[in-house]
Design a protein that fits this description.
Length: 254
């Protein structure tokens, strides 16, 4: 039986949910009944998201969590599990972008992007995977990018390559998690209006105006992405794993 409240009573962790897409995901999961753990490196913003949800009668707490704290990864994730006793939904959302062209990317650019946008996703998932296996239940959702599917246009190759890696590691967790009732899927946002977008050329270049380039004639919003995550985090998607939902207004059709 599918619970009509979609994620009622489920415990969800969203990385990088102090602002932007992560914040919208945390809000949407909380609205549909999940107990949400907001995590971010920005204490003020993360706490504010949790406080606002709590003030509206939803269940949300904030924990500072740096997704690149590899040494303490397992203990941090275990501490999060202890807050509500389990973790049903884990959304790998935290990320950074870059704009260096292929002939400009330095070793340190490359390493930073792989560490924050790819390595962190793997080790966060590995840590929560143990908890989900023991529960015989888990919904893993990873925020990749349209750039990971078709190469970085306004974002750098270091970014798009890391996001392509996320698409692949999601399939690896889908392959090994299936027998434990764990699904692993990605959402690939297109051009989405957040603080991250402010550094990208498509936001300002008249040639990239959405009426000219995007079939649905507008940029995406964090809520557009959150709606797809809600579906993948709920039991409505129980027979979908290792897959991808593109949320890009039709800008890229496979
Ligand atoms: N905005 C877009 O157009 C777009 C397009 C495709 C994919 N994405 C992806 O969506 C995700 C969210 O992006 P956004 O646009 O909301 O970005 P954003 O910059 O607005 O928010 C990112 C959040 O991640 C947090 N964060 C950064 N480093 C962290 C770390 N080490 N540990 C924990 N938290 C950290 C930040 O504090 C911030 O709250 C990212 O993975 C991004 O790559 C965004």
């Amino acid at each position: 039986m599918i619970n009509k409240n979609l994620v009622e009573g489920k415990v969800a962790v969203v990385t990088g949910s102090g602002q932007g897409i992560g914040k919208a995901i945390a809000e949407r999961l909380a609205e549909f009944g999940a107990k949400v753990i907001i995590t971010d490196i920005n204490n003020e913003k993360g706490q504010e998201v949790a406080d606002n949800l709590s003030a509206s009668g939803m269940t949300a707490v904030f924990r500072r969590f740096n997704v690149t704290d590899f040494e303490n990864m397992k203990s941090c994730v275990e501490e999060m599990k202890n807050i509500f006793g389990r973790i049903d939904i884990w959304v790998n959302n935290a990320g950074i972008t870059g704009t260096a062209r292929v002939d400009e990317i330095t070793l340190s650019d490359w390493d930073r992007m792989q560490e924050l946008d790819l390595k962190s996703v793997f080790f966060c998932t590995q840590a929560v995977y143990e908890i989900m296996k023991a529960q015989n239940y888990g919904k893993l959702v990873h925020i990749s990018s349209m750039a990971g599917e078709r190469g970085g246009r306004s974002s750098s190759c270091a970014y798009s390559s890391a996001k392509a890696g996320v698409l692949n590691l999601s399939k690896c967790f889908a392959l090994s998690g299936g027998k434990y009732n764990i699904t692993s899927n990605c959402v690939c946002p297109g051009r989405t209006l957040t603080a991250m977008a402010e550094g990208l050329s498509w936001l300002k270049d008249p040639a990239d105006a959405p009426e000219k380039t995007i079939p649905l004639c507008r940029f995406g919003t964090p809520d557009d992405i959150a709606n797809a995550v809600l579906f993948l985090a709920s039991d409505l998607s129980s027979y979908i794993t290792g897959d991808v939902i593109d949320v890009n207004g039709g800008l890229y059709m496979k």
